[in-house]
Design brief:
Blueprint lengths: L2 E4 L2 E7 L1 H18 L6 E6 L3 H10 L5 E13 L2 E7 L9 E9 L3 H11 L5 E9 L12 E5 L5 E2 L15 E4 L1
Parallel strand pairs: 3-4, 3-6, 6-7, 7-8
Antiparallel strand pairs: 1-2, 2-10, 4-5, 9-10
Helix pairs in contact: 1-2
This protein binds xanthosine-5'-monophosphate and magnesium ion.
Magnesium ion (MG) binds next to loops.
């Protein structure tokens, strides 16, 4: 489909499922090499990363574990906006962690989560992201495995939503 409508907004095809598969395979091969002798723990951040995560873990050949977490934000508290990680029931001490994100925009979400994870003394933490918006980044977030750098436009599809809708598309779309 060349154009789609999500809520009141029109979107056009931006990255095809074939291009996505190619990049997912590329970073999977890098992960295979970098974690050859380890059993990393993938931590996929829901909801947006669920399709990317399922493709990525089926593309790697190494033995790996996967856990799914959510970031909840409590707004308007005395300490300002806080992001908490929900659902991480695994002990990550001395583990090699690969966070799976759908998109690194300002980097705010990961900037808040990383200290919490590092506190638990994993062996290493790297980030795998489907998309990054270099023009929007505000925090020093290093993405070791990035599929695409994209301009600062809103995107949907392949797990990403606009106000709850649009996650089911196999391709990625951007606002017209
Ligand atoms: P930050 O700014 O914390 O943002 O790096 C990361 C989260 O914001 C959401 N986000 C988007 N979601 N299309 C989306 O569907 C976009 O273009 C977009 N930009 C940011 C997303 O949930 C991500 O985890
Ligand atoms: Mg979202």
């Amino acid at each position: 489909m060349a154009n789609i409508q999500v809520h009141e907004k029109a979107f056009k095809l931006f990255i095809s499922k074939e291009e996505i598969a190619k990049q997912v395979n590329r970073i999977a091969a890098e992960i295979d090499q970098d974690y050859e002798n380890e059993i990393p723990l993938f931590i996929a951040i829901l909801n947006g990363s669920f399709i990317f995560a399922s493709d990525l873990i089926r593309s790697v050949n190494i033995t790996a574990e996967i856990s799914f977490v959510k970031v909840s934000s409590y707004e308007g508290t005395a300490v300002g906006n806080m992001n908490k990680l929900i659902g991480l029931n695994t002990d990550i001490k001395d583990r090699s962690i690969i966070i799976i994100e759908d998109i690194v925009d300002t980097g705010n979400t990961l900037n808040k989560i990383m200290p919490y994870l590092k506190e638990q003394q994993p062996k290493s933490i790297e980030i795998a992201s489907l998309l990054s918006k270099p023009d929007a980044i505000k925090y020093p977030i290093e993405v070791a495995y990035n599929c695409f750098d994209i301009p600062n436009n809103f995107v949907v599809g392949y797990g990403l939503d606009y106000d709850g809708l649009g996650r089911q598309y196999a391709d990625i779309y951007q606002t017209i």
